[in-house]
Amino acid sequence: MTAGPYTRCPDCGFIVPPESMDFGLTPDRAGIDWSRPVRVTCPCCHAGYPISAGDMVPPDAEMTCHHCGTGAPHPAGAARVLCPGCGLFLLGPDLSTSQRGELRITEGMTGLAARAAVQAAKDRRAPRRGGTGTGQ
Ligand SMILES: [Zn+2]
Ligand SMILES: [Zn+2]
After folding, report:
1. Which ligand is in closest contact with the Cα of 17?
2. CA 56 to CA 74: how far, in whole Å?
3. pTM of the full predicted structure?
């Protein structure tokens, strides 16, 4: 697993590695073909956005993954750091207390929004057969 390019998410403003990435390879398959549109999604707020080579924030720091011990290079100030060893999104080591709070809110909100969407989909599936819910 290789870490994708870090970019600043235009939606939540955090520097993050892509949660997922849609791109083409150069003809020699050695790298990303920047002449084609490259789209990534943010691991924090899950917004999808296009990036270009100029949007990349180069890694200039490294942290050690608490899970597998692999060194994970990242740009200073990144909110999330993708471990190239185990693929975990680690919490960036350089965030201030207020940034950590902001990140928790951003990720919490998207989590809640996702749960609400699932619940809404369930509610639309009427009619319900008897029995008052066990919840899940
Ligand atoms: Zn984001
Ligand atoms: Zn790891």
Report:
1. 1
2. 11
3. 0.78
